[in-house]
Amino acid sequence: MDGKTLARIGAIVFVAVAITATAIEMNRKDDRPEAFTGQIRPVATQDPLAAELLRCSEIGEVGPRDPSCLRAWAENRRRFLGHPDQSSSQAPVSSPSMFPNAPASADPIRKESAPADLTGPTMQAEPARPEVR
User: Which residues contact 105 (CB under 8 A, 6 or more apart)?
Assistant: First the structure.
């Protein structure tokens, strides 16, 4: 027998063993007990916030307009990011000044007596260039 024939016989035997093992595995009954069925609890008993978030995710497009969903998402963000509760803050945070070292009267954003100039800076015209011929 030459090597080519021996390789073909080996490949056929390998394929036959693989097909037999697959057939046996497919016909075998699953005797393993379900270990996780007794441990699963409904979401509502775990955490009311989780139940509300689940409800909000199931209602689809209405979720972003639902006030209870907005409150639930805000609470979830607060828990996740670790921000303190909004009601526990003592003083409201003022907006920072653009010019912290300048007096308040010099701050153009905080001028209350004069209306703000919203036109922006003016552009200067370019000087005339000689024609090149």
Answer: 111
